[in-house]
Amino acid sequence: MVKELSHLDRQGRSRMVDVSEKEVSRRTAVAEGCLEASTETLHLVTTGSLPKGDFGPVVQLAGIAGAKRASELIPLCHPLPIDFVQVSVEPDPAEGRVRVTATVTATARTGIEMEALAAVSAGLLAAWDMLKAVDRDLRITGVRLLEKRGGRSGDWKANAG
User: Fold this and answer.
1) CA quadruple 32, 22, 69, 136: dihedral sign
2) What is the spatial distance between Cα 132 and Cα 62, in angstroms, rounded to a whole number?
3) Is 42:94 a contact under the CB 8 Å cutoff?
4) pLDDT tens digit sequence for 70-121
5) What are the residues facing 145 on neighbouring strands?
């Protein structure tokens, strides 16, 4: 349990955490999320037949852009020098979804989890944008952090499920 909430000042107001005294270390975070779609829509994805173009590269680029802009979207998020972003896009017609996974690495004083989550979210929103003309019943699900490595609190992995 956290004894003190570091994002609050003495008056209980939100503030950006001072990380200037923390050690710089290599940090990695992995996040995932899914976009549920119809079998017909996923067929268009897997055959490259979408009216808006090449699905996978657009989703990947949106994810990379999302990671790079996390601190612009999330008010208390520190801007970090990102060393690496990898976004994978895996259509799974049998499960009725597209899975987007992001791995983000930085050498910094604070964690990179928000950047990984922003990458997945931006990728999923781009996927939605590409599919909305052919499927009105899309659903974004399961956006979550899978693991983090590095930093003072050490490594962590999500429970299976």
Assistant:
1) positive
2) 16
3) no
4) 999 999 899 999 999 999 999 999 999 999 999 999 999 998 999 999 999 9
5) 31
- Whole-angstrom distance, CA of residue 67 vs CA of residue 58: 14
Helices (H) and strands (E) counted in the chain, each on its own, are 4, 5
- What's the confidence (pLDDT) of residue 70? 97
Q: Is the Cα dihedral 29, 59, 134, 39 positive or negative?
A: negative
Give me the amino acid identity at 148. K
Report residue 44 CA to chain centroid gap.
24
User: Which residues of the chain form beta strands (DSSP E)?
Assistant: 25-36, 82-92, 97-108, 139-149, 156-157
Catalytic sites, residue numbers: 129
Confidence (pTM): 0.92
